[in-house]
Amino acid sequence: MNWKLAKTLFIIVFILVNIGLAIAYINKINSSKVFEEEKTTELDFDEENIQILNKLPDVDDVKMQLITGKTKDFESYAKSRSNVKLNHGDETIDVHMEHPIDFSEKEISPLKRYIDKHVYHGKDYQFKSSSKNRVVFEQTYSDYPIMNNSKALIIFKIDKDKRVKMFTQSYMGKVEPSEGANNVEKQVISPKKALDELYYNRYLISGDKVKNVRLGYYSFVREPSVQVLQPNWEVVIEADNETKTYYIEATSNNPKIIEQKE
């Protein structure tokens, strides 16, 4: 073997590899600089061909923090009521209503009045959505919804005669600020910043339409009976005839983004 030639080839390969690494590093730095420069420029969504809501929520004086909640055990509650049956263990109940309610999509208030008066901790829930065969109410904390959470819902079922005769309920009890010295209230980022983050992370692109933006709590730690919930912006986007929902940390200047999986 020609050791001199082998040594020369080794040196050449070593130099080429290092040149390649240096170029990659420089490109990464330049890309990062461009990205940061882009982020310091005020985004005009009209110019980007992205439709957003005419009016976004005002959160100038809103501060929020992590909260913790425990799943309600309905076993004793169900045993004492003949019209209540346990569903999926003891965390969810099916309730047959003694007096059915005629349903109208234009008038949700009769259901809300019923909830406030007859449902377990009914005043803790607010209207979320309705469809052909169901109406959904979400549990709230300090008037903000606990979003996309099967442990904090009331779902009314609408029959073929447009009547509501039963509902399913789950509830999160002992909802309170999480323990920990670092869990202090922080200023909520603006909804515009949340949309900016979606854009810069390529979740929001030209041609997309923002359908809804709301502030609430989203669970990022889910144990069997305990959840830790974080302030989040929920953004619903319509893109190519497909609807996607994203959750953006609401109290971080460098927020994480979670895409809801259907």
Automatic annotation (TrEMBL):
InterPro entries for the chain: YycI-like
Pfam families registered for this protein in UniProt: YycI
Gene Ontology, cellular component aspect: membrane
Domain Regulatory protein YycH-like intervals: 31-251
Name of this chain's protein: Regulatory protein YycH-like domain-containing protein
